[in-house]
Amino acid sequence: MSISVVLPMRDTATWLPALVAGLAREWETGFELIAIDDASSDGSADLLKRLCAHWPQDRWKLIEGDGRGVSAARNQGIAASRSELIAFLDADDRPLPGRLGLPLQILKKRAELSHVHGGWWRCNANGELQHRVNPWTEGAGFSWRQFIEHKAVLPSAWTVRREALLSVDGFDEQIRHSEDVDLLLRLAAAGHRGAWIETELVRYRIHRDNASGRLRPQLQGLLKVLNRHLQGLPASDRAWAKEL
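The chain above was modelled as a monomer; its predicted structure follows.
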Protein backbone atom coordinates (compact mmCIF):
# COMPACT_ATOMS: atom_id res chain seq x y z
CA MET A 1 0.00 0.00 0.00
CA SER A 2 1.26 3.48 -0.84
CA ILE A 3 -0.39 5.39 2.01
CA SER A 4 -2.54 4.49 5.03
CA VAL A 5 -5.50 6.73 5.91
CA VAL A 6 -6.16 6.64 9.67
CA LEU A 7 -9.76 7.57 10.45
CA PRO A 8 -11.01 7.71 14.07
CA MET A 9 -14.81 7.67 14.34
CA ARG A 10 -17.27 8.32 17.13
CA ASP A 11 -20.90 9.00 16.21
CA THR A 12 -19.99 10.32 12.77
CA ALA A 13 -22.63 8.68 10.57
CA THR A 14 -23.81 12.10 9.37
CA TRP A 15 -20.44 12.88 7.78
CA LEU A 16 -19.22 9.50 6.50
CA PRO A 17 -20.84 9.46 3.03
CA ALA A 18 -19.14 12.71 2.02
CA LEU A 19 -15.79 11.56 3.42
CA VAL A 20 -15.87 8.19 1.65
CA ALA A 21 -16.88 9.89 -1.61
CA GLY A 22 -13.91 12.23 -1.25
CA LEU A 23 -11.53 9.34 -0.65
CA ALA A 24 -12.86 7.47 -3.68
CA ARG A 25 -11.57 10.29 -5.87
CA GLU A 26 -8.07 9.40 -4.69
CA TRP A 27 -8.43 5.71 -5.55
CA GLU A 28 -5.44 5.59 -7.90
CA THR A 29 -3.03 6.50 -5.09
CA GLY A 30 -3.41 2.94 -3.82
CA PHE A 31 -4.35 3.96 -0.28
CA GLU A 32 -5.68 1.73 2.47
CA LEU A 33 -8.36 3.04 4.82
CA ILE A 34 -8.05 2.11 8.50
CA ALA A 35 -11.14 3.21 10.42
CA ILE A 36 -11.31 2.94 14.20
CA ASP A 37 -14.83 2.96 15.62
CA ASP A 38 -14.28 4.49 19.05
CA ALA A 39 -17.46 3.41 20.86
CA SER A 40 -20.01 4.93 18.46
CA SER A 41 -23.70 4.64 19.28
CA ASP A 42 -25.15 5.94 15.99
CA GLY A 43 -24.36 3.03 13.67
CA SER A 44 -21.21 4.58 12.22
CA ALA A 45 -19.48 1.20 11.91
CA ASP A 46 -22.39 -0.43 10.05
CA LEU A 47 -22.68 2.56 7.73
CA LEU A 48 -18.98 2.43 6.87
CA LYS A 49 -19.33 -1.28 6.09
CA ARG A 50 -22.10 -0.50 3.62
CA LEU A 51 -20.23 2.40 2.05
CA CYS A 52 -17.10 0.30 1.51
CA ALA A 53 -18.80 -3.02 0.74
CA HIS A 54 -17.76 -2.88 -2.92
CA TRP A 55 -14.12 -2.04 -2.15
CA PRO A 56 -11.49 -4.83 -2.32
CA GLN A 57 -10.89 -6.27 1.14
CA ASP A 58 -7.25 -5.21 1.17
CA ARG A 59 -8.17 -1.54 0.70
CA TRP A 60 -10.01 -1.00 3.99
CA LYS A 61 -10.16 -2.21 7.55
CA LEU A 62 -12.52 -1.48 10.44
CA ILE A 63 -11.09 -1.74 13.97
CA GLU A 64 -13.13 -1.69 17.14
CA GLY A 65 -11.83 0.94 19.56
CA ASP A 66 -12.41 0.94 23.29
CA GLY A 67 -13.70 4.47 23.86
CA ARG A 68 -10.42 5.91 25.20
CA GLY A 69 -10.47 8.91 22.88
CA VAL A 70 -9.08 10.13 19.60
CA SER A 71 -5.37 9.81 20.50
CA ALA A 72 -5.71 6.14 21.43
CA ALA A 73 -7.82 5.50 18.33
CA ARG A 74 -5.23 7.10 16.04
CA ASN A 75 -2.47 5.08 17.69
CA GLN A 76 -4.47 1.91 17.02
CA GLY A 77 -4.69 2.90 13.38
CA ILE A 78 -0.97 3.62 13.13
CA ALA A 79 -0.19 0.23 14.65
CA ALA A 80 -2.47 -1.54 12.15
CA SER A 81 -1.16 0.34 9.10
CA ARG A 82 0.84 -1.37 6.37
CA SER A 83 2.39 1.55 4.54
CA GLU A 84 5.26 3.92 5.21
CA LEU A 85 3.07 7.03 5.12
CA ILE A 86 0.15 7.89 7.41
CA ALA A 87 -2.51 10.40 6.32
CA PHE A 88 -4.83 11.42 9.14
CA LEU A 89 -8.47 12.25 8.54
CA ASP A 90 -11.24 13.14 10.96
CA ALA A 91 -14.62 11.80 9.98
CA ASP A 92 -16.40 15.17 9.96
CA ASP A 93 -13.93 16.63 7.46
CA ARG A 94 -13.92 16.09 3.70
CA PRO A 95 -10.78 15.46 1.66
CA LEU A 96 -10.29 17.64 -1.40
CA PRO A 97 -8.68 16.43 -4.65
CA GLY A 98 -4.98 15.87 -4.02
CA ARG A 99 -5.36 15.15 -0.29
CA LEU A 100 -3.43 11.89 -0.70
CA GLY A 101 -1.71 12.30 -4.04
CA LEU A 102 0.19 15.50 -3.26
CA PRO A 103 1.73 14.34 0.06
CA LEU A 104 2.60 11.00 -1.53
CA GLN A 105 4.36 12.72 -4.42
CA ILE A 106 6.36 15.10 -2.22
CA LEU A 107 7.43 12.56 0.41
CA LYS A 108 8.57 10.14 -2.28
CA LYS A 109 10.83 12.82 -3.77
CA ARG A 110 12.11 14.40 -0.55
CA ALA A 111 13.58 11.77 1.74
CA GLU A 112 14.78 14.44 4.19
CA LEU A 113 11.18 15.27 5.16
CA SER A 114 9.33 13.36 7.86
CA HIS A 115 5.98 15.07 7.33
CA VAL A 116 4.06 17.50 5.15
CA HIS A 117 1.03 19.62 5.89
CA GLY A 118 -1.46 21.33 3.60
CA GLY A 119 -3.86 24.20 4.02
CA TRP A 120 -7.58 23.86 4.58
CA TRP A 121 -10.95 25.47 4.02
CA ARG A 122 -13.01 26.27 7.07
CA CYS A 123 -16.66 25.50 6.41
CA ASN A 124 -19.87 25.36 8.41
CA ALA A 125 -21.82 22.26 9.42
CA ASN A 126 -23.50 22.16 6.00
CA GLY A 127 -20.16 22.15 4.20
CA GLU A 128 -20.48 25.73 2.95
CA LEU A 129 -17.06 27.35 2.52
CA GLN A 130 -16.15 30.23 4.84
CA HIS A 131 -12.47 31.03 4.31
CA ARG A 132 -9.08 29.57 3.45
CA VAL A 133 -6.46 28.82 6.10
CA ASN A 134 -2.94 29.08 4.62
CA PRO A 135 -0.53 29.15 7.60
CA TRP A 136 2.58 29.52 5.40
CA THR A 137 1.44 33.03 4.48
CA GLU A 138 1.57 33.97 8.18
CA GLY A 139 5.11 32.78 8.85
CA ALA A 140 4.26 29.35 10.28
CA GLY A 141 7.05 26.78 10.12
CA PHE A 142 8.10 23.39 11.44
CA SER A 143 11.11 23.99 13.64
CA TRP A 144 10.37 23.68 17.36
CA ARG A 145 10.60 27.43 17.93
CA GLN A 146 8.62 28.35 14.80
CA PHE A 147 5.84 25.95 15.64
CA ILE A 148 5.53 26.90 19.28
CA GLU A 149 5.11 30.53 18.18
CA HIS A 150 2.52 29.71 15.52
CA LYS A 151 0.68 26.51 16.34
CA ALA A 152 -0.86 25.67 12.95
CA VAL A 153 -1.81 22.01 12.69
CA LEU A 154 -4.90 20.18 11.45
CA PRO A 155 -4.64 16.38 11.45
CA SER A 156 -6.92 16.06 8.41
CA ALA A 157 -4.35 17.99 6.33
CA TRP A 158 -1.28 16.26 7.81
CA THR A 159 0.72 13.30 6.45
CA VAL A 160 3.58 11.77 8.44
CA ARG A 161 6.07 8.97 7.87
CA ARG A 162 5.15 5.99 10.01
CA GLU A 163 8.68 5.53 11.33
CA ALA A 164 8.74 9.15 12.53
CA LEU A 165 5.48 8.64 14.45
CA LEU A 166 6.77 5.46 16.05
CA SER A 167 10.07 7.12 16.98
CA VAL A 168 8.21 9.53 19.30
CA ASP A 169 5.60 6.97 20.45
CA GLY A 170 2.71 8.47 18.50
CA PHE A 171 -0.01 10.53 20.15
CA ASP A 172 0.01 11.02 23.91
CA GLU A 173 -3.12 9.19 25.03
CA GLN A 174 -3.29 11.17 28.28
CA ILE A 175 -3.93 14.44 26.43
CA ARG A 176 -7.56 15.16 25.53
CA HIS A 177 -7.06 18.51 23.75
CA SER A 178 -4.21 19.81 21.54
CA GLU A 179 -2.79 16.31 21.20
CA ASP A 180 -1.82 17.23 17.63
CA VAL A 181 0.15 20.28 18.84
CA ASP A 182 1.97 18.10 21.36
CA LEU A 183 2.88 15.51 18.72
CA LEU A 184 4.21 18.04 16.24
CA LEU A 185 6.30 19.70 18.96
CA ARG A 186 7.79 16.34 19.91
CA LEU A 187 8.59 15.59 16.26
CA ALA A 188 10.28 18.98 15.94
CA ALA A 189 12.23 18.49 19.16
CA ALA A 190 13.47 15.13 17.84
CA GLY A 191 14.76 16.77 14.65
CA HIS A 192 12.09 15.63 12.20
CA ARG A 193 11.67 18.06 9.32
CA GLY A 194 8.36 19.17 7.82
CA ALA A 195 7.20 21.29 4.89
CA TRP A 196 4.05 23.00 3.67
CA ILE A 197 2.01 21.89 0.68
CA GLU A 198 0.81 25.30 -0.41
CA THR A 199 -2.77 24.43 -1.31
CA GLU A 200 -5.93 23.41 0.53
CA LEU A 201 -6.25 19.66 1.06
CA VAL A 202 -9.42 19.35 3.13
CA ARG A 203 -12.67 21.00 4.14
CA TYR A 204 -12.55 21.47 7.91
CA ARG A 205 -16.09 21.42 9.19
CA ILE A 206 -16.93 23.59 12.21
CA HIS A 207 -19.95 22.35 14.15
CA ARG A 208 -21.13 22.18 17.73
CA ASP A 209 -19.88 18.63 18.35
CA ASN A 210 -16.25 18.93 17.26
CA ALA A 211 -13.35 20.05 19.42
CA SER A 212 -13.27 23.56 17.96
CA GLY A 213 -16.81 24.07 19.16
CA ARG A 214 -15.65 23.72 22.77
CA LEU A 215 -13.38 26.73 23.09
CA ARG A 216 -12.66 26.80 26.82
CA PRO A 217 -11.41 23.19 27.20
CA GLN A 218 -9.53 23.53 23.92
CA LEU A 219 -7.64 26.61 25.16
CA GLN A 220 -7.00 25.04 28.56
CA GLY A 221 -5.60 21.97 26.84
CA LEU A 222 -3.37 24.10 24.64
CA LEU A 223 -2.04 25.99 27.67
CA LYS A 224 -1.23 22.70 29.38
CA VAL A 225 0.65 21.44 26.33
CA LEU A 226 2.62 24.69 26.00
CA ASN A 227 3.56 24.68 29.68
CA ARG A 228 4.86 21.15 29.29
CA HIS A 229 7.06 22.01 26.33
CA LEU A 230 8.35 25.28 27.76
CA GLN A 231 9.69 23.72 30.95
CA GLY A 232 13.44 23.66 31.43
CA LEU A 233 14.35 26.44 29.00
CA PRO A 234 17.55 28.41 29.73
CA ALA A 235 17.23 31.70 31.61
CA SER A 236 17.77 33.65 28.38
CA ASP A 237 14.49 32.28 26.99
CA ARG A 238 12.28 32.74 30.05
CA ALA A 239 10.87 36.11 29.02
CA TRP A 240 10.01 34.69 25.58
CA ALA A 241 8.34 31.68 27.19
CA LYS A 242 6.32 33.85 29.56
CA GLU A 243 5.07 35.96 26.67
CA LEU A 244 3.97 32.86 24.79
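The chain has a mean pLDDT of 91.
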